[in-house]
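F.,

This is the one I mentioned.
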């Protein structure tokens, strides 16, 4: 259980409670609690407009959004993906009876290395499932080029990439579909929640059916769909969150700058540079601990914990090391050496809008203290 004195890797940015009450009153009054109610419909529209995308389907969480995204495009066989992510990425493949094929990551972006994708394609490959890890854009151009040559679908796990803009437009416009997470730990939250971003209304309708048991209308079931709907209370929180989201991201940007200014001079420790051509959401602040730093990554992690600072080793262990994946031929460490190295060096520092300057100073001074 969180303790107020501790500093966590993240905290949800909640709007003033008093402003949420009128939304709750409206829900109580209407007795409309779920099944694409008015707040749900409004949030889908407002999010699409805020994010600069065509269509968006709200979900109960990001994992179900991933599972349904794969189903909506009828993905089967093998899918190429990254071992350096949260385990939900590949669990969504197993839930669809699909075999994950791990490909190594790029040491700069921490995302799938496009140069290594082609070698992993087999006659069974139907799609690529890259992740914009920490909200940092994948090499979307190169990935699309490979997908076009081999006739593959691309579904982006954009769980961390809310609001990220790449080369002048939403990063979420790339690929066939993108999924978002609105979990409590994310830049934009509805407690639990998620979305699929899709380019046209036809696929939106199919996704809407799949997340509602497969109902196309009152009497027609078109697929063995699931219940993955977002409820009205979550959607109302999302609408209120949207009013504060720009300020929240601005504060994250300030914190990022402060860490970067203070930590970039620390030797044998790197703050990966901000992604190029990107308006970033500052969802995470990863640092990499190198060999000459006085402590190992895990020793620094422990030292911070002893001081009440709960930094996190996202994403260690690699997904490919978990029991349900480690037997796969692509999970052998020699196939994914960069991912293995980064997972052993990375530490994500606390970053969230209500993180106080005093706490930032404390974190920086512990990292700079060379013992
Ligand atoms: N794809 C990717 C790439 C993802 O990263 C995720 C989720 C998904 C897909 C799936 O999306 P969802 O189905 O979750 O929508 C967290 C989250 O549970 C998970 O959503 C997230 N990625 C992952 C990266 O992080 P944990 O196990 O690290 O969470 P936890 O409970 O340790 O929370 C971290 C810190 O956040 C706590 O120390 C304190 C703070 N916190 C957390 C919660 C839940 C709060 O202040 N309030 C809260 O309510 O997994």
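My design for it:
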């Amino acid at each position: 259980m969180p303790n107020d004195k501790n500093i966590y890797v993240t905290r949800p940015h909640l709007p003033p409670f008093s402003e949420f009450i009128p939304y709750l009153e409206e829900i109580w009054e209407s007795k409309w609690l779920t099944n694409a109610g008015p707040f749900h419909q409004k949030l889908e529209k407002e999010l699409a407009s805020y994010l600069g995308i065509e269509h968006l389907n709200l979900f109960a969480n990001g994992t179900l959004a991933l599972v349904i995204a794969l189903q909506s495009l009828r993905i089967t066989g093998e899918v190429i993906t990254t071992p350096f992510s949260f385990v939900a990425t590949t669990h969504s493949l197993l839930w669809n009876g699909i075999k994950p094929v791990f490909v190594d990551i790029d040491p700069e972006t921490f995302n799938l290395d496009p140069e290594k994708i082609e070698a992993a394609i087999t006659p069974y490959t139907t799609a690529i499932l890259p992740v914009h890890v920490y909200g940092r854009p994948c090499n979307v151009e190169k990935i699309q080029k490979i997908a076009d040559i081999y006739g593959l679908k691309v579904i982006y796990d954009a769980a961390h990439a809310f609001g990220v803009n790449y080369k002048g437009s939403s990063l979420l416009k790339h690929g066939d579909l993108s999924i978002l997470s609105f979990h409590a730990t994310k830049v934009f939250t509805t407690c639990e929640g998620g979305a699929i971003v899709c380019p046209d209304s036809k696929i939106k309708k199919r996704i809407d059916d799949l997340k509602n048991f497969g109902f196309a209308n009152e009497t027609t079931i078109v697929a063995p769909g699931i219940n993955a709907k977002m409820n009205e209370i979550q959607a109302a929180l999302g609408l209120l969150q949207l009013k504060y989201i720009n300020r929240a991201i601005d504060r994250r940007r300030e914190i990022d700058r402060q860490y970067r200014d203070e930590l970039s001079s620390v030797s044998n420790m790197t703050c990966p540079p901000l992604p190029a051509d990107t308006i970033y959401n500052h969802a995470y602040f990863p640092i990499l601990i190198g060999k000459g730093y006085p402590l190992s990554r895990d020793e620094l992690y422990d030292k911070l914990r002893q001081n009440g600072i709960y930094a996190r080793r996202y994403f260690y262990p690699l997904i490919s090391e978990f029991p349900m994946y480690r037997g796969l031929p692509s999970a052998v460490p020699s196939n994914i050496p960069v991912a293995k190295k980064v997972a052993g060096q990375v530490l994500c520092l606390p970053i969230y809008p209500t993180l106080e300057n005093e706490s930032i100073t404390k974190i920086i001074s512990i990292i700079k203290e060379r013992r």
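The first strand starts at residue 7 and ends at 8.

Talk soon.
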